[in-house]
Write a structure and sequence with these properties.
Layout lengths: L8 E5 L7 H4 L5 H13 L1 H20 L13 H13 L9 E4 L5 E3 L26 E9 L2 E7 L4 E5 L6 H11 L23 E8 L8 E8 L6 E4 L2 E3 L1 H11 L9 E2 L4 H6 L2 H11 L5 H38 L1 H56 L1 H85 L4 H8 L4 H51 L2 H12 L1 H12 L12 H4 L8 H7 L2 H4 L1 E3 L3 H13 L10 E3 L15 H6 L4 E2 L8 H10 L6 E3 L7 H9 L3 E6 L2 E7 L7 E7 L13 H82 L3 H102 L2 H27 L14 H17 L7 H61 L3 E7 L8 E7 L7 E2 L7 H16 L6 E5 L7 H15 L6 E6 L13 E5 L14 H18 L1
Parallel strand pairs: 6-23, 6-24, 11-22, 12-13, 15-16, 22-23
Antiparallel strand pairs: 1-24, 2-3, 4-5, 4-7, 7-8, 8-9, 9-10, 14-15, 16-17, 17-18, 19-20, 20-21
Length: 1221
Amino acid sequence: MPRQSRSPVAATSTSSGNESTKENHVRGSTRVKMEKVKQRQAKVKEENVIRRARVRVDEEDRRGHERLIADGADADAEGDAEKEEDDEEGSGSPKGRKRARVNTDGDSRSSQFQDGDILRSITLPRDPSDGFIPGSIVRIQLRNFLTYDYVEFQTGPYLNMIIGPNGTGKSSIACAIALGLNFSPKVLGRAEQISAYVKNGTSDGHVEIELKTPPGRPNLVIHRKLATTGKSTTFMLNGKNATGKEVSQRMAELGVQVGNLCSFLPQDKVSEFAMMTPQQLLKETQKAAGDTNLTRWHETLIGAGKESSLIKEKILSDHSQLNQMNARNAAIEREVDRYHERRKIEEMINVLKVYIPCATYRELLARYNELKEAQRKMHQKVLRLKIKNEPAHTLLNTLKSDLKDKERRREARKKDTQKLFHDVQKLYDSNEQMENHADSLQSKLEQLDQTEKDRQKQIRDLEGKIERMEEEYNQPLPDEIVAILEDKNGIVRRQKAEYTRERTEINARRDECDGRLKEKMEEKAVVMRKIEQAQRNLSQLDSVEHQKLQRLAQFNQDTADAVVWLRSNKHRFRKEIIEPAVLTLNVPNGRYAPAVESIMNGDRFKTFVAQCREDYDLLNELINDQGALGRKAWISTWFRDINTTPITEPPMTQDELQALRFDGYLSDFVSCPPAMLWFLKNEVSLHRIAVTLTNNAVDVSKATQAVARSGGAAFIVGSVINNVSRSRYGRKAISNVTRDVGRANLLANHGVDADAKRRLESEIAQYKVAVAAHNEEIEQLKEQEKQIDAEAKQNDELGKSIKDRMDAALKARTTKEKLKQSTTREKNILRQKRAAPSAVQERADIRVELVNVARRRVKVVKDYLAVVKQIVAEQQETTRIGLEFVQISANRTALEQLCKKKDEKYNRAMDEFAKIDAEYNEAKKRSKEALNDSRDALNTTTDEVREQYQEIQDKRTEYEQALKLAEANGTAPPSAEGVDLRTADEYRAELESQQAQLELVSKTQPGVIEQYERRKKEIKQLEKTLEERQRNAAKIERNIQQTLNHWKSALEKLVGSIGQKFSAAFDRIGCAGEIRISENEDYDKWAIDILVKFRDEEKLQLLTGQRQSGGERSLTTILYLMSLTEEARAPFSLVDEINQGMDQRAERVVHDNMVDVTCKDDSAQYFLITPKLLPELKYHERMKILCVNNGEWLPEETRVGNLMNLIEGFVSTRNRATNGQ
């Protein structure tokens, strides 16, 4: 059996002076060394230049590049001004380099980038003494590692070809490099446990790698010890213990990128490279080559782009809400203006209501003062006339006093006489009454005989009736009735008890049966309700509308609840409110649903469309303001007047659509109410978005030009949405931004839930079985009820017979008792008739009463005569007093005429005084009332009105005082300008005018102003929020644009350089290849597309893990990596068995290209691992070939043998043989 105890590596180099021959026990040719020295001396100047450039880049890398995306305010207007100022200085100035903004520590940093001149970050400068670039591998030592017992070998600074048969351990070298430099085993695609890399049968091992460092520093030796036990390993750096973090930090400083497939491609990862997405390829390429800031810029753009999208979405939502709130406030703004106008008029009315009582009091006070002075003067005049006429008036008063005394005495006599006349009348009336009574007695006496005859007849009738009634009562009751009533044997009582018992038992049985029947009926009703509910749920599963409502509830619960509320409150609106598009928008051809849904955003799907302004305002007020849903909710609403809102025409005619092979516009493939279509045309421009479902069916460039004519629009080709816009500035440049069509969710037909349907159908079947069982039990209970009813009927008949016999007996006994009572009553009446007095006695009593009446009449006549005599005496005395009264009255009249003549002047004065006094008192009263009114008006008004009135009053008082002074001095009156001299009537006229204006201004509905002001505050707050978000969005956009300018130009330069080499390499093998940058709105989706064509009849196709063959993928991979090599930043790269599956022609071309690329002066170190080589390949003196051999007859000692000596011996022998011939 062959043993693999050791696998020595023999190194061969076409330029032995370029390696350490002492370490490899190989002595190179002196001639070759001299040629090498000469070549290096010839290139010393060029290398010095490169070294200086690389040193500068190294220093700037270690300081770190200035961040181009500032977190603070470094992208504000001040920064823009600095940028413009720096641009004006120009690059020709010694100070042409841009001045960097101040960092967080306050230090100014110089920027190393110029617009249009982004430096490619290159590897650290090569050491001219040995040709190695810092970070490249100088030496590798392995012990007990996979197939190796022990091996140590040196590498070359350029291309290192590691060759050997399969299974000898070539790929183990790649594993050793990755693990020895502390990279994860995952990058190898093999075992993930470190212990798995220790050679079988051994307990530990190690990997030691020597890396080149910058000139003047000792090389970095990394020693990693591996063990089969435990998961931890140990590191040493230059013989000192170290941590894995320190090793990783040193790798980062040297730019080692083992984890990047573009610079380190192990055998088990080759297929993964072709499987990488274009986005992953872009990211890995950035890490491996080009500017060192590419990855950071890209990550910044991705983060900022996502943040920008989020802010834009919020801004769009805020804009929608703000427009809606502004529209609602604009709709009621006229009412608010009317409210403010009305408030202004009301304030003026309130002011006038204060001015009017004050002005009235001022005018009444002036009138009161005038009347007061006139009243005082007239009062003095009246007093003087009164004193002059006093004697005559004294005598007249005496006569008046006497006249009053006579009048009083005469009136007293009159009253006495009237009383006597009244007594006479009473006596006369008494006589008349007694006369009438006597006539009544006489008439009664005449009727007494007839009354007696009637009484006797009534007595005879009563006696006969009583005799008949007693005869009927004395007749005995029938024996049957007596037996029933007496019930001596208890037969009737027992029959009644039996009847009652049976009735109670029957009722109990009926109640029990009724209860069971009711219980069963209720149970059946419950099951029937469950069946109905399950059937409704089952029908709803098949209802598209229900499915849509369920999806809407998942999408936005407020909107779904509003739809349910609206369906129950349609009567409150003038016109139909169109439900959101998620419910009313249908796409009959479901293939167009993803395109329609990708064009619309979430707000459009949940917007209610009103068809008139009143419904729009009412819907917002009820749900958004008043909380009609029972909670605080917000829904999106929309309204535009179809008669006043213009709509943009489609960008292309139908003929143009057909010529470009479009299917039509999106509006042609949807079905919805006209109002919803109007909304979609206004807000989404559905009628302007052309669509075709066939990829590559439309010439995108021609479609872009056609759409751009109208200023821009969108069109959809297959699964790509093209958003075309035209700049409004400069040369009106056209831009086209693309994005993918997403999957349809809200508009997709999700079908019926089969499990739920089966479950409901099973429940309905179970419920129906239960209903059948209940029906059977109910029928049984109804039969029992019929039997109980039959028994109850028999029992009722028995009870009825007993009751009839008892009722008949009781009726007979009651009749007999009533007859006895009637007999007793008639006997009492007969007794009363017999006890009545006789007619003879009554006749005597009447005659006695007639005599008594006559006697009383005689006495009355006597009293009457006495009173008449008193009346005559009183009448005589009254006549005498009357004559005296007449005499005194005549004297008074004569004296009054005399006084009247004297008092005419006094009376006139008195009338004038009375008139003035009345006016004075009225003015006094009115002025007091006006004073109280003015005080009340001033006390109840505001401080502002009081101050305004006091100012006006002070000006008027000052003017009036100045006017009086001018009149007294005879000078010109003062100016009345600025003085309010209006009277109360003028104020009243102004008040009437203002009140008339107030009536013309209609009242505003309650709560409108409150809503307007509240919404105004909300709008202001929302505008501030929106402004802040717009500022943030603008700042982010500036940062994005600034970063994009650097990143895109550097990326385009890198990809352009790689693509040029890539295409040239494919051209050399008779194929075609191209590398493109695929742009996207989402910076995370920017990608590098590799397009290849291996046959003439094919078109360029995207490289994928499925489309091309394994050999084609390998060829494409190695050509891409080779094209990337010249741009790479890593100090070394590695590919393992990349040539597997290639044909000889392709493999030879690839090998030649690799030699050319990796052996240039500025090429970095490269490792190519392959198990086979073609004959007559191209080689370069800078190449180093490492041959891996193993077998049974390997020497036990290490460092024995020199393959280079064997080769030189073979060449020398062949040359001698050739010369000898």
